[in-house]
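Exam review. A common question shows you a sequence with its structure tokens and asks you to describe the fold in words. Practice with the pair below. Do the first one on your own.
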Amino acid sequence: MNAVVSTNGTRIERAPKLNRTTRSLPIELDWARLDAARAAFTTRRVDLIDARFLLTDVRPEAGQVALARVRRLCHHTRLQDPHGRRVTLFPGDEIIVSFGDRYAPQQFEAYVPDTIGPCHLVASGGIAAQATSWHSRIGRGPTEIDVLGVLGDLNGMPLTLARYAIDTPLEPVRPDKVIAVAGTSMDSGKTMSAAYLVRGLARAGMRVGAAKLTGTGACNDFYQVLDAGAAHVVDFTDAGYASTFQADAEDIENINACLLNALARRNVGVAIVEIADGLLQRETAALLSSERFRASIDAIVFCAQDALGAQSGVDWLHARGHNVVAVAGKLTAAPLAVREAISVVDQPVLGLDGLADPFIAPTLLGKPYQDARSA
């Protein structure tokens, strides 16, 4: 085994490089074995009936669907299944996951491994990757897994999330109104704010849809906005991505177009689009600096943990031509922080109750309450 040392000083074992002078034959899969394996949320669109072989002599790539065995439980002790249930894991369990990179300052930095073999479960939504660093509060590190191979079809081609992605019409369409929710960082209150805004607009009589545009595949945010009253919910995994970390700016713009199309086809009048992580994250910064993306949305609700973050974020977004209509997020939990924010931003500062209010929420669309039901 080749060893590397992570940024937090933890020793990580990497799998050795495969000897390419010999090639392993695909292993025929028994359906009973696949049926017994625990499939992850990220693979929910994959039709496992297409899986006929286990490919062990392929180079892993983001989005490939793999069969893995749990070796040692550490941080993640449960796996989110396609229906959102947290399935308890045991050593020796076989799980169906997807390769993907991960960027999460509060959890893991991780990358698709070079070879089939030992790596980590870096997200409970079912992401297999090689963790290189993690937050100090994750004392035991990532759960260890052994990837047994990539699922292959009858022709020996790897199954990928992209193969089962939703179709994007040639003619671009989008809901009548689109509000993006962005923030200073991970855990700034974006998902909660998006969910309560969905609730406020739904209570005002609107047909509201929600999309998670970037991030790491998991069901938490997906089901939270659904429970809040969203008529239809999609995320980047529906567009064929296990994670958007390291995706090109054009790819994320295309994901955005794909998801807005999907919501429009469900007759959604208003879409709430959440953008993961913070303004300084590479993919987020590129997306919010994109003219194509700016033209696809009508407004932004910006989430922050304190007043300075709110002021800096609003200024950053204004410099790129965005229409910021409200400040929200974790800062609104503290009355003192709210008063500080009110003193440095021109936008209304809305807590969860304000976002969920059927009289207030429609004003973020430029609509008084009495016009809301025509959206």
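Now try the second one, then compare your answer with the model answer below.
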Amino acid sequence: MPSISKKTAEKIIFYRFKDVYEKEKDIILENIVHDESPDFFAINKNDGSSVGIEVTGVYQNKEEAMLQYWRQDGWQDFFVGDQSELIKAFNDVLSKKAKKSFKYTPADKQILAIYMGSMVFQESIDLEFMRPEIIIPENKFSEIWILIKSYESKFKLYRLQ
């Protein structure tokens, strides 16, 4: 079974985010560079400003993450929807990325894009239910977005910060 590398996963999340973000903000991101700290740099074609974009994903548990990246077969034996696990994953990712945000190469705008990789919780309404328990620590991000793949297989954004 093929497996997706971390770099490829980052690119997949980034380009999905970019497509929806550009439509929502009516901008074009160009001169994209895949870096490390943050993951991507781009230039906003509309105003020439620099944009740093950190991408990541959240999953209910390690098994669900492995399934998303084709590193494991057979989800039928263990897969259960657990919103509390997904909330914990959001809070862990937000804590980790908030700490890292202070060390990123400066840009005019810093964005955190989080792909919600749950195979059960895939709608904005799910985020509305979880939102009171999601903790956003102090950070250097201008915006925090959650990228959602809805049941209609379309991507949409939910603004967290």
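Model answer, second protein: The helical segments are 6-25, 62-68, 83-101, 124-130. The beta strands are 29-34, 40-44, 50-58, 109-116, 143-149, 155-159. Full marks require stating both points clearly.
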